[in-house]
Amino acid sequence: MAYIIKGAGLTIEDVVSVARNRQQVELHPDALQRIKKCRAMLEKKIDAGEIMYGVNTGIGEFSEVVLTKDQVKDFQKYLIYNHAAGIGEAMPEDHVRAAMLGRINVHAHGNSGIRPEITFTLIEMLNKGVTPFVCKKGSVGASGDLAPMSQIALLLLGEGKAYYKGELLDGKEAFKKAGITVPGLKARDGLGTINGSNVLTAMSALFLYDASNWLKQAEIAAAMSLEALKANMGPYTSRLHEVRGFKGAIRSANAIEKLVTGGDLKSGKVKHKVQDAYSMRSTPQVIGSAHDALAYARSQVEIELNGVGDNPIFFPDENMALSGANFQGSPVALPMDMAGIAITMVSVLSERRMNRLNNPALSVGLPPFLTKGAGMFSGMMLSQYTADMQIVEQRILSAPASIQSIPAAADQEDFVSMGMNTAIKNFQILDNAYGILGIEFMAAAQALDFRDYTFGNGVQKAHKVIRRHVEFLDIDRPLYKDHNTMKALVESCEILKEVENTVGSLG
Fold it and tell me: In what side-by-side order are the strands of the sheet with 167-170?
């Protein structure tokens, strides 16, 4: 079934379905009528000689330059040429497809003034698998993601490059093979395609989907480590967190309690301390705060996905055009900086639990560095080094980008969001997080193999999945293969899927 684009109701899950799973899309008939109505109004204003930013004026510092009728015709082409100024390797195809979906949803409001042919061409590109080649870097997150969106817009001129059926082709050739007609760009069409923070928002949507799955797996790894460390499970009683009131902490405590249900530790058969270290008993509060941060970021991203991020914005019912700054990426960049920080914070917590598993002074009877042959063998000593290196990189990347504005365009654009920097570094933070959590999973599985009591149903299932991929570390071996295997396992969400099939949803 196709996803119906109507300018509202677009969720992060919808973005994933279209961008990654290649769900087909259609434009709602009401959205088409809105687009046509707005375009008709714009054309009347053009014919009347009304001055409108980016339609018959220059842009940025040149906004006071009024164009002649002949210049208006070619201005959109040169606008796209000038702004297709990115740098670097290709952006992943799902990021580009998500950005295209977001831009179509903007058009569906009927406030952008573009021709319907532009919107329909973007839809065809999604449905037929033509994905523009877009450089990863170049956007400052206001006035929209101009550089990457312009590389998408080049295809509308029959130029640029695009991926089609696994090949990188010239844009015109990709369109020809896919059976798509090049629409060209007329007045307003170019700026109406590029003037929004659609790329950073699309990337943020995909990141939040992945980060949410990672947080659930952080709870599974925590439950495994807690079982191995003979934790006091009292701090995971939901009543404790309900009296404080944070939704994320309640959710996290319930998830961890669900994972250990059915085991001897939860039932009180295993002796434990009165109070554990913070890295153990604060887990619901810490992971919970990350859940809350991601929930807020999600709310902001979904507002932007369904809003009119453009300039100027046209109001056909009032016969009005307003120029403002709805392209400004700060409403997304600020919460997404926080979302990246949240993943780093939970990664630090993961490493601290892994440290306790390794340290014989803290591990409640586990062998030093989780090896039977301490001295001859070093066990998982170096695994901690690898986790620590990634933690430091995460900390460096967690410096907020949303406060890093550098003025541009002769100070006409003197505050920008730098939201693309946020979006890029968040995926780098998450890439490290997969590795860090994979190492905790590996250490926790190793530790559980030294224990002789029954574990919770969720913990048992997670341990079983890990052992399908990584063997018990009986004697020392090169661990880089295991580390990479575990990283890929976390990224695949195989542990999460099988655990949730066993114990139910973790939230």
Answer: 131-132, 161-164, 167-170
Q: Is 53 a catalytic residue?
A: yes
Nearest to 350 by CA among 218, 253, 233, 249: 218
pTM for this structure? Answer: 0.96
Quickly tell me which residue has 């295997």 as its tokens. 485
Cα–Cα distance, 98 to 181 (Å, whole number): 22
Amino acid at the residue 338: M
Instruction: Give me the domains of the chain, ranges plus CATH numbers.
Output: 3-196 (1.10.275.10), 207-503 (1.20.200.10)
- The CA distance from 87 to 126, in Å, is 24
Residue-wise pLDDT for 370-409, tens only, equals: 999 888 999 999 999 999 999 999 999 999 999 999 998 8
CB contact burial 491-505 (16+ within 10 A = b; e otherwise):
bebbbbebbbebbee
User: How many Å apart are CA 488 and CA 168, to the nearest integer?
Assistant: 27
Say if CB 140 and CB 417 are below 8 A apart.
yes
Tokens 């990021």 -> residue: 95
Catalytic residue among 53, 209, 236, 434: 53
Do residues 349 and 221 make contact, with C-beta atoms less than 8 angstroms apart?
no
Residue whose entry in the numeric block shows the structure tokens 């009927």: 110
The fraction of the chain above a pLDDT of 70, given in percent, is 100
SS3 per residue for 399-450: CCCCCCCCCECCCCECCCCCHHHHHHHHHHHHHHHHHHHHHHHHHHHHHHCC
**Six-digit token pair at 245?**
């009131």
Token pair, residue 365, equals 């009877």
**Residue 434 to residues 51, 121, 425, 430, 471: CA-CA distances in angstroms?**
52, 37, 14, 6, 19
Question: What is 223-237 written as a DSSP string?
Answer: HHHHHHTT---GGG-
User: How many CA atoms are closer than 13 Å to the CA of 9, on its beta-carbon side?
Assistant: 6
Residue 492 has a pLDDT of 98
Return the SS3 of 132.
Answer: strand
* Selection from 294, 286, 298, 301 nearest residue 339 by Cα: 294
